[in-house]
Design a protein that fits this description.
The protein is α+β, with helices and mostly antiparallel strands. It folds into three domains: 16-124, Butyryl-Coa Dehydrogenase, subunit A, domain 1; 127-222, Butyryl-CoA Dehydrogenase, subunit A, domain 2 (Beta Barrel), CATH 2.40.110.10; 233-393, Butyryl-CoA Dehydrogenase, subunit A, domain 3. The chain has helices at residues 16-21, 24-32, 34-40, 45-53, 72-85, 87-92, 94-104, 109-120, 233-262, 279-311, 317-348, 365-375, 380-393, and strands at 125-128, 143-147, 150-157, 168-174, 180-186, 192-195, 210-218. The strands form two sheets. Strands 2-3-7-6 form a four-stranded antiparallel β-sheet, with no helix packed on it. A three-stranded mixed β-sheet has the order 1-4-5, with helices on one face. Strand 4 (168-174) and strand 5 (180-186) form a beta hairpin. Helix 2 (24-32) packs parallel to helix 5, helix 5 (72-85) packs antiparallel against helix 10 (279-311) and helix 9 (233-262) packs parallel to helix 11 (317-348). 44% of the residues are buried. It holds the Pfam family Acyl-CoA_dh_2.
Length: 406
């Protein structure tokens, strides 16, 4: 079914439907067992493998490099569709797509060539940035030291989303002088231990737990020449969360509509012989769907801002920096709007159904749990303040968001 036929509006490009058609059978296969996986807490190793086989993980590579030449709006629309199938799977690939952007924007031709080949070969990357130790804001306890011609990593990371499914971990650390350094660590290297100890009540299948590094030896080629992130990194990673939320909204809206249509029992004080004909119930379903529609539209509009930054890379530092700052503004001002829309939708959907809707086998509760979990990353109260500072004083948003001891 075309996105327009489903009522979600046109995709971000004339060729979007052709591109999406490649992956929709895989999305459908993923969605078919999403509830069962959530109940059984079964990690989506197979499901991510299907996406790799379909070359979903190479979306942003050029056709010549074995990719799909996907624009950023096309990528984010596909992430909405993937999240509609299972938000855990979409979230688990967040670090991989961020690493891909980092590679595409790297100033090192050698780094770009090496990692284009690896990503084209189907290799994927998980997250190794955040820590829960005592390091101060903007610093890391994880250390990279040089030993002869090689490097050695020691440390501990948390929120290592997608790492258990990946071939590599994108690691942020400090060198012996306290300078920032970025490395790619093989997940199967000696001394790497990835633990599935993420115990959040939502997004439980994203492998967002602990990764330990004890004397892990790295070749020099695995150290990124320039540790700086790509210019729209903060906006990109946050917008993946918003796309995931939009997908949750779509899935919730489709489930509540289906369950209302199937419902046989009615209330004595209702407004129709069938729940599907009750105008009050229809209004609830309509509000849930409208919220999901609006959330997706906001995400795609913000994705256009990221594309402008990508396109401005070779047009001078000032132009690129301005485009990046404005992209941060657009994404920041979308955060609370999209979050509120989806949290409301995933709560109010129960008003259209009876008490049977809370049965575990339907999995409707996972929509709110997953949305609330994603919305708790990078607190939205600070996003509102950032947007207000820009609107009132023209203040550019922060270039990085980091957490640690004060």
């Amino acid at each position: 079914m075309l996105q327009t036929d489903a009522g979600w509006g046109a995709g971000p490009s004339a060729r979007y439907e052709e591109l999406a058609a490649r992956f929709r059978p895989v999305f459908a296969q993923i969605r078919a067992t999403a509830v069962t996986r959530d109940v059984e807490r079964r990690l989506p190793h197979a499901e991510i493998g299907w996406l790799k086989e379909a070359r979903f993980t190479t979306l942003r590579l050029s056709g010549e490099a074995g990719g799909h030449d996907a624009s950023l709006p096309e990528l984010f629309n596909l992430l909405i569709e993937l999240s509609q199938a299972d938000s855990n799977v979409a979230n688990a690939l967040r670090a991989h797509f961020g690493f891909t952007e980092d590679m595409l924007c790297s100033s090192s031709a050698e780094w770009r060539t090496r990692w284009t080949a690896r990503i084209s070969a189907g290799e994927t990357v998980g997250s190794g940035v955040s820590e829960t130790g005592g390091a101060k804001v903007g610093q890391f306890d994880t250390r990279l030291r040089q030993v002869g011609s090689e490097y050695v990593v020691d440390g501990r990371k948390f929120y290592t989303t997608g790492s258990l499914f990946a071939d590599w971990i994108h690691l942020s650390a400090e060198d012996e002088d306290g300078a920032a350094v970025v490395a790619a660590v093989p997940t199967r290297a000696l001394g790497v231990d990835i633990v599935d100890d993420w115990d959040g009540f939502g997004q439980a299948l994203t492998a967002s737990g602990t990764a330990r590094f004890e004397g892990v030896v790295l070749a020099p080629e695995l150290i990124k020449p320039d540790p700086a992130r790509f210019p729209y990194a903060m906006a990109f990673f946050q917008l993946v969360h918003l796309a995931t939320l939009a997908g949750i909204g779509r899935a919730a809206s489709e489930d509540v509509a289906r369950l209302v249509a199937e419902r046989q029992r009615v209330y004595s004080h209702g407004n129709g012989g069938r729940s599907a004909d009750d105008p009050q119930v229809q209004a609830v379903v309509g509000r849930v769907r409208g919220n999901a529609y609006a959330a997706g539209a906001v995400v795609l509009k913000a994705a256009e801002a990221l594309q402008r930054v990508f396109d401005a890379r070779g047009e001078g530092d000032d132009r690129a920096a301005k485009a990046a700052a404005l992209a941060d503004v657009e994404v920041n001002q979308a955060v609370t709007v999209v979050t509120n829309l989806v949290l409301e939708a995933t709560t109010s959907l129960f008003d259209a159904l009876g008490a049977s809707a809370i049965k575990e086998g339907l999995g409707l509760d996972r929509y709110w749990r997953n949305a609330r979990t994603i919305a708790s990353h990078n607190p939205r109260i600070y996003r509102d303040r950032t947007v207000g500072a820009f609107a009132v004083n023209g203040t550019a948003p922060p270039r990085e968001y980091r957490v640690g001891a004060s």
